[in-house]
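QA checklist item 7 of 12: single-chain prediction sanity check.
[x] sequence parsed
[x] length recorded as 319
[x] structure emitted
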Amino acid sequence: MIGSVALGAVVLSTGVASAEPSESQARERYEELQEELSTLNETYNTAQEDHAAAEARLDELQEQLEEAEEELRTRSGRVSTIVQGAYTGGAQDGFGIFFGGDADSALQNIADLDFLSAGQQEMLAEYVNDVDHAEELHGAAQEAEEASAEALAEAEEAMAEGESALEEQAEVLEELGGVDPTAAQGSTTGADGGSVAASGDVQAVLEFARAQIGKPYVWGGTGPNGYDCSGLTQAAWAQAGVSLPRTTYDQVNAGTPVSRDQVQPGDLLFFYSASAPSHVGIYSGNGKMIHGSNPSKPLEEVSLAAYWDSVYTGAVRPG
């Protein structure tokens, strides 16, 4: 009897260990990965923005540093003449004694040389200030270079994590028999989703967005051959002369908030978080939106019913 119970326990344990996830568990995991991919893409975009800003700052600082060093070279000959006249130990020794310390010490040395003319003292003080400025620029340039490298590494890490998430999502989709739980009837990947009445500017936005349907979703894509979600909305609204920020985190603040029951074609729809949404689409009317979901599928027009309405967090009207 005891042996039978033990055998049953072993069989039961083995069955539990090898159990496949249920359909509901697979659906839940697929949806979790969908949100994770949206977040990773916006992390990538933000890191790329930070990298570009750091690179621009570095270029600016390097230009300023070159100008400062040129100014130092211009002054150095005249300063060396003054120093040689002030000290009898030779140009190199005098220069080292005079400028061997920090800027404040050098300025104090200038003040102590009461036998120098006012013009000479002013020239020396300007030279010391130039040295100090050049050192500050050099330090700032190093910081900008480090910030650039850090942002680039963050972007690369987000992309690598995204690729892993895509692989897992593909496996989960296979478990679901190829049925995407975020899709709904009425979705289309072709540019024939129909049209709705809209004002001239908004009509230009919708026509542009609809013309992109079927193009690939690209990490950090801003067109013209591929887009990510916020790249598509930015490019579409540019057709109406509206300059949207690059990321969803900023686009959510780039217009007038509207309630769900007041959304109109052209409005931006945001998902997953009200304050820091990681996904955006363009409302195209009739309960649908045009968007880019993730690299596993092209840009498409989808129904908001079911999944997308369940993760909807707000809408904004640009302009």
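[x] summary fact logged: Confidence is low (pLDDT under 50) at residues 1-18, 88-100, 189-193.
[ ] second reviewer sign-off
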